[in-house]
Design goal:
The chain is an alpha/beta fold and 250 residues long. The chain contains eleven helices and eight strands. Helix 3 links the parallel strand 3 and strand 4.
Length: 250
């Protein structure tokens, strides 16, 4: 039985003190939430937020990580450093990393494999641009990102991986794929997973939707058979907007 997984990506927002304040509010608000909940503050706030969520049901996540354990890699963050402060999950392949910083499928795959080797749970993001969707390339783009991102990932550790479908044109724009459109892509992702692994693996995989998720549309999206959670951006920055998403069944 798949469990809903609601993740908050705070992106490049919040100072350390602001992050701590928000984390404390979320711990108070979501203490009895029945869903899996993860928050991913900026790197500078991770250690402080780790102290706030320690011993609670809220999972601490990172927004990215480097592809190596250590060495001369100026500006990068090692998974060893993330684990050291209590990080359990990491967002990889986010469209902003792909499109703004040129991260390739091969680089993202290297990070996925390293995260799994270090017992971090990756959220692998896939999604098409509006131009790709309108050009009939949705399945080609998403399928390639999925196959390349999971290359070398053994079936035995697949339960540690979450897929997040995030149509690039719906991120931070206020536009949202209709629940029917989103569910159709999630179903296609399961078809690809079945081909890579098995029908059973595809059915058990947690697949989130990301792209202007808000309290007003969360329940309708989650009601679809192939949508198992949300990767939330802007609405994750306030307890008043993130709380209702995480508690969409309340």
């Amino acid at each position: 039985m798949r469990k809903y997984y609601i993740a908050g990506n705070w992106k490049m927002h919040k100072t350390v003190s602001e992050s701590v304040t928000l984390a404390k509010s979320l711990v108070s608000e979501l203490g009895s939430c029945g869903e899996r909940v993860m928050i991913a503050p900026a790197f500078t706030a991770l250690a402080a937020v780790a102290e706030v969520v320690k011993g609670t049901s809220i999972i601490l996540g990172a927004q990215n990580m480097g592809p190596d354990l250590q060495g001369a890699h100026t500006g990068e963050i090692s998974p060893l450093m993330l684990k050291d402060i209590g990080v359990k999950a990491v967002i990889l392949g986010h469209s902003e990393r792909r499109h703004s910083y040129g991260e390739s499928d091969a680089l993202i795959n290297k990070k996925v494999l390293l995260a799994l080797a270090q017992a971090l749970e990756p959220i692998l993001c896939v999604g098409e641009t509006l131009e790709e969707r309108e050009g009939g390339k949705l399945e080609s783009v998403v399928g390639t990102q999925l196959r390349e991102g999971l290359k070398g990932v053994a079936a035995t550790v697949l339960d540690k991986v979450t897929i997040a479908y995030e149509p690039v044109w719906a991120i931070g724009t206020g536009k949202t794929a209709t629940p029917e459109d989103a569910d159709a892509v999630h179903a296609y992702i399961r078809t690809v997973l079945a081909g890579l692994y098995s029908e059973a693996a595809a059915k058990s995989m947690c697949i989130q939707y990301g792209g202007s998720v808000k309290a007003e549309n969360a329940a309708e999206l989650m009601a679809k058979p192939n949508i198992d959670g949300a990767l939330v951006g802007g609405a994750a920055l306030k307890v008043e907007t993130f709380g209702p998403i995480a508690q969409f069944r309340s």
